[in-house]
Amino acid sequence: MEQDKEFNPKIVAFLCNWCTYTGADLAGVSRLKSSPCVRIIRVMCSGRVDPTFIIKAFKQGADGVFIGGCHIGDCHYSEGNYKTLRRVEFMKTFLEEFGINPKRLRLEWISASEGDKYAATTLEFETEIRELGPLHLVEA
Amino acid sequence: MINVNIDGKEIQIVEETTIVRAAESAGIWVPTLCYSELFEPYGVCRICSVEVIRGKRSRIVTACNYPLRDNGTKILTNSPRIQTIRKMIMELLLSRWPNVQIIKDIAEAVGVKEPRIKCLERDEDPNACILCGNCVNICKDVVKANVLSFENRGIKREISLPFDEKSDECIVCGACAHVCPTGHIKIKTLGYERGALQDWYLGPKTAINIPTLQAVPRVPIINEEACIKMQTGGCGICSTYCEPEAINYDAKDEEVEIEVGQILLTTGYQTIDLKQMPQYGYGRLDNVYSSLEFEHMLNSTGPTGGTILCKDGSVPRAVGIIHCIGSRDENFHKYCSRVCCMYALKFAHLVKDRTPAEVYQFYIDMRAFGKGYEEFYKRLLDEGVNMIRGKVAEISEGYLTNGEKPFLMVKCEDTLIGKFREIPVDMVILCPAIEPQFDASNIKKIFSISQSPDKFFLERHPKLDPVSTMTDGVFIAGCAQGPKDIPDSVAQASAAAARILSLISLGEVAVDPIKAEVADEYCSGCRICNSLCPYTAISFEEEKKVSFINDMLCKGCGTCVSACPSSAITGKGFTDKQILAELEGILSV
């Protein structure tokens, strides 16, 4: 029954307020097609993304987690994104140990002016998740 | 004052004047080779030899370094004895350097045609070094860099650098090349550095200059890198001429710290480096100017006094003005630089006004966008300016078989008639793209603001908030935000000033409530967060053994919140609870 249904991936995106969130806004204002599967959570800085959030997102049914921050060196808070980079790299090995394909976690640097990049990367991430298929972590 | 007699002319001069200067004031020519007013007389070439007669005694002396002290001294600059000496010297020089112009000139003046001597060291080079020592002397006496010196003796004597290597002591002031009478020393530009002081194409500048006569304040400035005094402690000539003693070489650039509450960034623009587009021949072909250089030429206080002239001093027969150089161009900048169409029309009007030249405008689209601009465009059409809609492919030099002066051939496509055209002109004016300052990304980092994809500073909102940025208290105006003309820049800057003033008059600032907070009872005092904070807002309270966040320094990024192993830190507005609830909410459907 469930297999017959069309697979619509759930992607949780943690976007930093200054760059990627504004970039996503720009993508919208510019009427660019970005992934409709993305569910955005705004944080002030990508450095705010607690590894717990990533785990919780997967646990509650997300098929992919997308983290967007400012470009390295451009962080509104100077160096928050360095911490994110460190954490995401760690989380990828951690996810692999738990049997979750680390490709389901993606970190991108998208500045406030890169609306087109936001649209392109989210679409690309969506197709990647579609190829990987649903992550059956949540009991049906 | 003493009286002397030079070649029968009685003149009055100040004591200690050298014979060369005395002769000069009497209007008598004395040949010189190693002499320059810039440094101490050297007296090695002996060509300035003259005969000094005091009483019954006559002596041969060098005019350049012989000071006149006695009243009634008689000097002969062209006696038969002197003529013989000069001829001999010139014959010797000419036998060694037969093609050097200055030697040929003096030899001709003293009546030497062909030297009788055959020199083994004969050098046919017209730019040969004639060992006059001018370069050594100016480097020693004026520049005080002491880089150049003589080496070896006799026929092997030559000018050289220490150890024959490029010396760090050389400040590349160019003084040696300036005084070299044969052009043996040349100054070469080895690279083109963006942002460095560029010489005006229309002529060089001195190290001390008044940038323009319209400069505010209108005082001369010294370019530290070019000033010899500042480099080596030599020269200092300008201060000897300044009567009020206003020149201060000790003044240095200094960093001053000023505390301010708000900042308006108006860092402006630069024009694109035209040498990136060799097809337009900028810097390679004569009479190809950038619009700013042409503006400089139009200026009544500029190098030509406002007359429009080609490099050879002639009035151009036709002038081509080319729009969109680097702007609206996929290879460089996609945006329109906005001001070029209108100033190009102004140029056309002024060229028509001041010369009988034909004017050709090569444009892509004519964007006469502002108040009164379209009318101006219409007026130009009536004045008979040739409008060619199309992009110029190349500018090359053209020659006529009858030997008339060469011209510039502008190859372009005329899209309105659908044909390729070649138009001969004498002068080309390029309208370079306006681009962000080369160091705009540094400014961006300092003020943590954003740049749009074209690298101009990004405003908070393109329509509703065009003067402020994402960083509170930092405002932008003018071309730093995007290409714009003077009225638009003034309007935007006034708006920014008004915004700043309104905050000042309000007397208080609203601060973002998003801050992090430590719950003392949960903090284990691990101090992980202390080093994470980019604003050093977190300190450790030794007494309570807990971390403490300074509210005023905290910007609320939340990096510490997610790092806290005991979840003692909460980020107001973005607490764990809130985000997790959000997560649950968005994933429930």
Structural features, described:
The complex is a heterodimer of chains A (140) and B (589). Chain A has 140 residues and is an alpha/beta fold. Chain A has one domain: Rossmann fold (3-Layer(aba) Sandwich), CATH 3.40.50. In chain A, 39% of the residues lie in helices and 16% in strands. Chain A has a four-stranded parallel beta sheet, sandwiched between helices. The radius of gyration of chain A is 15 Å and the shape is globular. With 589 residues, chain B is of the alpha/beta class. Chain B folds into five domains: 77 residues, Ubiquitin-like (UB roll) (Roll), CATH 3.10.20.740; 46 residues, no CATH class; 165 residues, FAD/NAD(P)-binding domain, CATH 3.50.50; 71 residues, no CATH class; 72 residues, Alpha-Beta Plaits (2-Layer Sandwich). In chain B, the strands form nine sheets. Chain B has a five-stranded mixed beta sheet with strand order 2-1-5-3-4, sandwiched between helices. In chain B, helix 10 links the parallel strand 14 and strand 15. In chain B, helix 2 packs antiparallel against helix 3.
